[in-house]
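Protocol step 4 of 6: record predicted structures for both targets in the notebook before any analysis. Target 1:
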Amino acid sequence: MPFNEQYILSEMLALLLEREGFDVEVKSGLQNSVLYEGTKQGQIDAYVEYTSAALFLVPNGTKPDSFDTGAVYEAVRRGTEADGVTLAGRTGFRNDNQVAVPAAWAAERNITRLSDLAPYAAGMTFGSDLVFADAEDGLPLLESTYGYRFGDVRRMDPALTFEAIRTGQVDAIVTYTTDARIDLFNLTVLEDDRGGLPPYEAILLVPKARSADPRFAAAVGKLVGAIDSAEMRRMNAAFDSEKRDAREIAQEFLSSRGLL
């Protein structure tokens, strides 16, 4: 499921590689499994993936015993290596799943953590995208960890969840760390105080053959540790709300950091 940031990040990779003299074709809107398989086959030279999403793409024998951030990263590193794919590093931001509720509702009840929802969950309607509602690392894991179930779950396109909570059709929604609409819709993100949701660190994947090219590796490596979640959220807002061009946003960011 493509996110706004993936369009921006693909343009960043293109700009960095073009600067080093590589001819680049940007392919946007592809699914994770297609991107990963293309990277394994050497048909895709670089893309941004997320650690917990990658766990479902790498060989089963490399999966960790827990969703600890470090354990997940190491499992993905081992798994991609076994597949002939190099994990070139973390970009610096995470795009975790998280639960948000209306800020006024949370303030009135002094709710700041997911565990605080226990007395209310059975009477709440939860708005979810089509993946999170049923994925083993999504809502089922959250409800199992916290020991409650929402009274109703409404599955919808992720673009519709914010409007649904604004109009009172749902009481809580799944959102993402880098989604700029959290502030726009005056929502409170609840702390995952029991670790019921896995980490989605943004990572760079490249075919092993490409990672052996020093010029290529150096260009891609400029994104390692370069972007924090707040900065990615700001860029997503420019793309989504301001309707700015992804390449323009990417170039502006890279230039401001002295990377171009």
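Target 2:
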Amino acid sequence: MFLTPRELEIYIDRALEEDSISADVTTSALIPSHIEARASLIPKEAGILSGLDVASAAFKRVNPDLVFTEKLFDGERVQGGEVVATISGSMASILTAERTVLNFLQRMSGIATLTGLYVKAVYGTQASIADTRKTAPGLRLLDKYSVSVGGGRNHRMNLTDGVLIKDNHIAALLGEGVSLSQAIKQARAKAPHTVKIEVEVETVRDALAATASGADIVMLDNMSPSEMRSAVDQIAGNCLVEASGNVTLENVAEVADTGVDIISIGALTHSVRALDISLDYETHNA
């Protein structure tokens, strides 16, 4: 994963604290400490798994004696009804951790599954599917990890990962008398030499101007397929071309056919539907 063990621990602790697991009044009132259980994680629908390591770590953070056994692994496709992992040990501990674990696993698997659908839709073209920074606050590393599990690529992880000159940057600079070309040259002069410069444009003319001014990547924002194809044809390999804005599963293949190199899609993470996964129990007395 993208996280160190300590970073993962912090993510999990924050989620468990949110649920106040030390004061689970329902479980404390109803479940005797001697009851042990065996539970299975079972998706109710097909998808791509992501987050099993997080699930295991969360269970063990609640109770280190719980035994988590993976039957499948992140990145594998699963059918509805398949057992992907089992957990055994204190039933009270499993119940206390259940919702937090499912929140992680369902969201992460939903992201991986949706990404996989987009990747499949552009198969056979040169386009790669990428995410954006439109992630759940505080969960970016897990969101982006799940995109990679689904076969996608990661765009900037944070604001240090590259210069991205967007429409609002350009609007602010134009008010100061700075042109697009001057802005690119200024970024090139001031940014570290290891950092790439990307420019968001809304017209073919601006795409060509950005390329001529030395941009490494040109992002075609909300352009029609015909405009994208025109830009790609004229840029002719001088820089990478990214398409973004209003891309859906229904139109992504058409976007890919324009010849763009990258298609960035905020919906992979900002409005994903969780994969339906349940935790089913078998109980026995210790």
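Step 5 preliminary note on target 2. The domain at 5-118+273-285 is CATH 3.90.1170.20 (Aldehyde Oxidoreductase; domain 3). The mean pLDDT is 94.
Proceed to step 6 after PI sign-off.
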